[in-house]
Design brief:
By secondary structure, the protein is an alpha+beta fold. The protein is built from 8 helices and 18 strands. The strands form 5 sheets. Strands 1, 2, 3, 4, 7 and 8 form a 6-stranded mixed sheet that branches. The protein has a 5-stranded antiparallel sheet with strand order 13-12-11-15-14. A 3-stranded antiparallel sheet has the order 16-17-18, with no helix packed on it.
C-alpha cells in the first residue's frame, strides 16, 4: 500500500466493471464511505481490460464484477498464477455464486451496494494480503462454481477465525453454535472448535443443502452425527454426547426428518 495523506496507508484500488454507471457508482461509494483510505488507480471494463489494469497498476485491492461481455471476473483471476491483491466481488443476486463465495469465505457485495456492507468489506481489506490462503480460497470457490454438487464426501468449506484460515470437510462438521456475531464450529475428532467472526446466519443456507438442520436459534446440527433424541427433555444428543436443545417449533419438523433418515 502507498503512504499518502500524512502517515495514512492508502489502499490502491482497481475497479473492473463493464457498465460505466456501475463504475461511477462504486467510485462515488468510495468517495463517501472509503474513509479517505482508498485510492482509485485504474479501471477496467472487460476481462482483457481488467487484466491490463491489474498488470499496469499492481493494486492492493480489486473490486471485481462477475459478468462482463467477454467473459467473467473469474477469468480475470485465472490470468494470474498467484493472487497478491485482495478481491471484493460485486454481483447481482445469483444464488449459486453467493453460495460459492460463502463456502470460500470470500468478500462479496450485492448490487445495489449497501453502504454499511461496503464499509465493512473495505475495513477487512489487508487481513490476508500476501497470504497464500487467498489463492486457496479462490481455488475452492472456482471448484464449487464448476460442480456445485450436494454430495458431502469431498465438499470443503473455508472457516476464517481471528488468526487462522481453516479448510474443513463439510462431513467433519458435527455442529455449529451461535453467540451473537460469532459462530463456533465443533469438528469430528478435533479437541478445539473453530470460532469464526461471522454470525451463524451466514452459514445456515449453505449447510442446509448438506444434511444440516437448524434445530434452535443458536444451533445447527449435522444429522449424520445424531446419537438420539430425548423427547422428554426436547434435546438432541450428538455422537460426542453433547446435548443440543430443540426449539418447540422445530420439534415436529425434526421428528419428520428422523422418519426420512
Amino acid at each position: 500500500m502507498d503512504v499518502a495523506n500524512g502517515d495514512k496507508l492508502m489502499i490502491r484500488t482497481v475497479i473492473i466493471d463493464d457498465e460505466s454507471t456501475a463504475r461511477e457508482a462504486v467510485t462515488h461509494m468510495i468517495e463517501l464511505y472509503g474513509d479517505n483510505k482508498v485510492e482509485i488507480v485504474g479501471y477496467g471494463d472487460s476481462v482483457k481490460g481488467g487484466i491490463e489494469a491489474i498488470n499496469r497498476h499492481n493494486p492492493d485491492l480489486v473490486l471485481l464484477d462477475i459478468k462482463m461481455p467477454d467473459g467473467n471476473g473469474f477469468e480475470v483471476l485465472k490470468a494470474f498464477g498467484e493472487i497478491n491483491f485482495d478481491v471484493i466481488f460485486i454481483t447481482a443476486y445469483e444464488q449459486y455464486a453467493i453460495k460459492a463465495f460463502k463456502f470460500a469465505a470470500l468478500d462479496y457485495l450485492l448490487k445495489p451496494i449497501d453502504p454499511e456492507e461496503f464499509r465493512k468489506a473495505i475495513e477487512r481489506t489487508g487481513e490476508n494480503s500476501g497470504d497464500k490462503s487467498l489463492n486457496m480460497q479462490l481455488q475452492l470457490m472456482m471448484e464449487h462454481m464448476k460442480k456445485p454438487t450436494t454430495q458431502r464426501e469431498d465438499k470443503k468449506i473455508v472457516l476464517r477465525s481471528a488468526d487462522s484460515i481453516h479448510l474443513v470437510y463439510i462431513n467433519d462438521i458435527m455442529r455449529v453454535e451461535s453467540d451473537r456475531n460469532y459462530a463456533t464450529f465443533y469438528l469430528v475428532n478435533e479437541e478445539h472448535p473453530v470460532t469464526v467472526t461471522k454470525s451463524m446466519r451466514n452459514f445456515v443456507e449453505v449447510l442446509e443443502d448438506y444434511g444440516f438442520v437448524r434445530v434452535h436459534q443458536s444451533h445447527i446440527i449435522n444429522t449424520d452425527h445424531i446419537n438420539r433424541y430425548m423427547k422428554n427433555d426436547c434435546e438432541i444428543v450428538m455422537t460426542d454426547e453433547s446435548r443440543i436443545p430443540v426449539s418447540t417449533r422445530k420439534r415436529d419438523f425434526l421428528l419428520k426428518r428422523f422418519e426420512e433418515l
